[in-house]
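ENCODED BACKBONE
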Amino acid sequence: MANGTVWIYLSYGLAFLGREEIAETLSKTVVTEILGVFAAYAVKALLENLSKNNIWPDKPGGDADRDC
């Protein structure tokens, strides 16, 4: 994430220096990278929460351990 943030600022510097085409390509790549990292983290967190908060049959406290 830190690299992506630095790259965004560097793309503004490139645009200022007259290299708009390179800056535009770099910005698109960086935004894709940042969104990819965010999406991967969100999926990981979702799966961890589902696993932690679900009652699995092989997990202590699962269906076999319930008093019905």
The CA atoms of residues 1 and 34 lie 6 Å apart. Residues 2-55 form one domain. The first helix runs from residue 2 to 16. The mean pLDDT is 80.
